[in-house]
Amino acid sequence: SQQGEEDPQALSIQEGENATMNCSYKTSINNLQWYRQNSGRGLVHLILIRSNEREKHSGRLRVTLDTSKKSSSLLITASRAADTASYFCATAGGKLIFGQGTELSVKP
Amino acid sequence: DTAVSQTPKYLVTQMGNDKSIKCEQNLGHDTMYWYKQDSKKFLKIMFSYNNKELIINETVPNRFSPKSPDKAHLNLHINSLELGDSAVYFCASSEKGVNGDSPLHFGNGTRLTVT
């Protein structure tokens, strides 16, 4: 069964704005990962946050994890047109299960 | 050099045919996977191998048969192709086992179209 569910399904913003994507899941996890997929390409790993961590940063990316609410968020600050892609969360609790993704469009 | 490479990139074939997709990784990873991504971008795991041993075999029709000749290669053979098999198939690898403890490295996918 599908584990992670992303919200919103689609997001359109202007360059320079921040983009926030959310992921909710149902069962306990060991870690949660975020991936990016550009059109016609494979998924690329962005960041992994473990269940005992609350926040993690990588460049313009900030990920939070709230295990009590079974949710995570991915924040991309100062977005660029090159950030246009689909973003997936994946939960690890025995095996890695992907959500259906958020399509982010950043307009120049 | 591409870390995870799969061939072909596009595959168009008719119903009933048999086809194979090849995957190779040069990362030295022990674990490899096949994922299927449907038209709504839902990504579902099909198989996972750890050091040539089948670890995960999800509810996949037995027309799909993975083969791992060595830990750097994981091929997918599909018999008697059906219209519903049309999708993008991704190969991936990870350093550690199938528990999701380490990130996955994906190939660029094979878009299979069955007519």
Describe the fold and architecture.
The complex is a heterodimer of chains A (108) and B (115). Chain A has 108 residues and is an all-beta fold. Chain A has a single domain, classed as Immunoglobulin-like. Chain A has strands at residues 5-7, 10-14, 19-24, 31-37, 43-50, 55-58, 61-66, 71-76, 85-92, 96-98, 102-107. In chain A, a hairpin with a 4-residue loop joins strand 7 and strand 8 (71-76). The mean pLDDT of chain A is 94. Chain B is an all-beta fold and 115 residues long. Chain B contains no helices and eleven strands. Chain B has strands at residues 4-7, 10-13, 19-25, 31-37, 43-50, 53-57, 64-70, 73-78, 87-94, 105-106, 110-114. In chain B, a hairpin with a 2-residue loop joins strand 7 and strand 8. The mean pLDDT of chain B is 93. Classes of the chains: A mainly beta (108), B mainly beta (115). At the A-B interface, strand 4, strand 5, strand 9 and strand 10 of A face strand 5 and strand 10 of B.
Give the % helix of chain B. under 10%
- What would the principal axes of the Cα set say about the shape of chain B? globular
Strand content of chain B: over 45%
> Structurally, how many domains make up the residues of chain B?
1
Shape label of chain A = globular
> If helices are DSSP runs of H or I spanning 4 or more residues, what is the number of helices of chain A?
0
| Fourth-level CATH superfamily of chain A | Immunoglobulins
* H and E order of chain A: EEEEEEEEEEE
SS class of chain B: mainly beta
Structural Rg of chain B: 13 Å
CATH superfamily of chain B: Immunoglobulins
Quote the CATH topology of chain A: Immunoglobulin-like
Distance from first to last alpha carbon of chain B: 34 Å
> What would the average pLDDT of chain B be, to the nearest integer?
93
Unreliable stretches of chain A (pLDDT < 50, length at least 5) are none
The mean pLDDT of chain A is: 94
Assembly state (oligomeric): heterodimer
CATH architecture of chain A: Sandwich
| Number of helical elements of chain B | 0
